[in-house]
Design a protein that fits this description.
By secondary structure, this protein is an alpha/beta fold. Helix content is about 35%, strand content about 20%. It has a single domain, classed as Rossmann fold, CATH 3.40.50.300. The strands form two sheets. A six-stranded mixed β-sheet has the order 6-7-8-3-9-10. A four-stranded antiparallel β-sheet has the order 2-1-4-5, covered by helices on one side. A hairpin with a 2-residue loop joins strand 4 (about 70-75) and strand 5 (about 80). Helix 3 packs parallel to helix 5 and helix 5 packs parallel to helix 6 (about 185-200). It is globular and about 50 Å long. Bound molecules: adenosine-5'-diphosphate and magnesium ion.
Length: about 270
């Protein structure tokens, strides 16, 4: 099914020297500063950072919802700045699935009808719509809840509907801004597991913003934003997340005290 979608490991989404500056009454806000980033098919990339670090700004730029002040975004081989409004909209519809923190479901529609919305927009024919909606709901484990409206579903189930709606168009890229921000930690872990599984089985390039250290453990790769800058992800050390394999191997050594030490420890060749 994903044959037309290129190869696993291909760079599907790229930011090159991307900056975004907002003019504000108190002075310019540099929400993203010279960000370089590549996202590959089949990988779940987590963008981590404190509130205000620039995660939403970066995700909006990557998804073509906002334009960089400088630098460029290349999605599926297209420089977004070079597209007309109509072509950008078409490219976004064809290649992107977006998952929202607040789910973004339409209250009067059933789970199945919500998932169907993007297929109606793309004028997919009715028989195919039914088939794809059923498949997407099955993938997120909600077949039995297809007829229920959002207010008849739990938060975790609502976000699963949101995810089904995002994947029903078979996107190459999934963008999720704090998708578990409104869920309790156990439900959040389940939703993150689902995102990781879909990313891997479908060969999607997924970018997920979160500041929850527990969720970072599901990532294939982590980048850290700090005041709009990508900083080296000294990751597991700072976050207090479970030790990665690399760290476990060096467990006899004294724990690193600074990020520079942590980096040096990681970069040292393994000694036995
Ligand atoms: N439209 C805007 N106008 C002015 N400042 C903004 C705007 N959007 C975001 N910012 C500022 O940019 C910085 C990064 O915000 P944001 O990307 O929302 O961070 P995060 O998602 O990591 O919490 C913050 O200082 C925020 O106040
Ligand atoms: Mg945000």
């Amino acid at each position: 099914m994903n044959a037309a979608h290129g190869e696993r490991g291909d760079v599907v989404l790229r930011a090159e020297g991307v900056s975004r500056t907002f003019a504000a009454p108190g002075g310019d806000v540099h929400a993203c500063v010279d960000v370089d980033l590549e996202v590959r098919a089949g990988e779940l990339l987590v963008v981590r950072g404190a509130s205000g670090a620039g995660k939403t700004t970066l995700l909006n730029l990557l998804g073509g919802l906002d334009e960089p002040t400088s630098g460029r975004i290349v999605l599926d081989g297209h420089d977004l700045a070079e597209l007309s409004e109509a072509d950008l909209a078409a490219l976004r519809h064809r290649t992107l699935g977006i998952v929202f923190q607040s789910f973004g479901l339409i209250p009067v529609l059933s789970a199945a009808e919500n998932v169907e919305v993007p297929l109606r927009i793309s004028r997919t024919d009715a028989a195919q719509r039914d088939e794809r909606v059923a498949a997407a709901l099955a993938e997120v484990g909600l077949t039995a809840h297809a007829a229920q409206r959002p207010d008849e579903l739990s938060g975790g189930q609502q976000q699963r509907v949101g995810i089904a709606r995002a994947i029903v168009t078979e996107p190459r890229v999934l963008i999720a801004d704090e998708p578990t921000g409104q869920l309790d930690s156990r439900t959040a872990a389940g939703v993150m597991d689902l995102l990781a599984e879909l990313t891997h089985t479908r060969g999607i390039a997924a970018v997920v913003a979160t500041h929850d250290p527990l969720l970072v453990a599901r990532a294939d790769r982590v980048v850290e934003l700090h005041d709009g800058h990508i900083v080296p992800a000294s990751a597991d050390v700072d976050a207090g997340a479970p030790a990665s394999g690399a760290q476990a191997a060096g467990a006899q050594a004294a724990p690193p005290r600074t990020r520079a030490e942590a980096r040096a420890a990681r970069d040292r060749p393994a000694s036995g």
